[in-house]
Design a protein that fits this description.
Elements (H helix, E strand, L loop, with lengths): L18 E4 L2 E5 L5 E3 L2 E3 L28 E5 L2 E6 L2 E6 L2 E7 L2
């Protein structure tokens, strides 16, 4: 996915987008679930800290989806949901833990 740049919107404390720490800077979640910063929009990379694997969360009984109350975040080639700073991925009858967003 190629990075994109919004030219009509300035991110800041009152812009309406959720601020997310990412690497050594702050990003903002845009409407497409991408992290947006000065370098453009991008996904959270699949890594050791943010893996793409089946790791069921025992305590999670929540069904993620449109209108569930959690922000959608692009993670590699799929979407996760941001819950208390962690990425949760819907997987069958459970949610997988894809790590704390870093």
């Amino acid at each position: 996915m190629e990075p994109t740049r919004e030219t009509t919107h300035q991110h800041g404390p009152n812009c309406g987008h959720k601020k997310v720490p990412h690497g050594n800077h702050m990003d903002y979640l845009n409407e497409n679930g991408l992290l947006d910063c000065a370098e453009g929009a991008h996904a959270v990379a699949i890594s050791e800290k943010n893996p793409d694997r089946c790791k069921p969360m025992n305590e999670s009984k929540h069904a993620h989806g449109a209108g569930c109350g959690h922000e959608k975040v692009k993670h590699g080639d799929h979407f996760d949901y941001l819950v208390d700073g962690r990425l949760e991925h819907p997987h069958g009858d459970h949610n997988d833990d894809h790590g704390q967003i870093v």
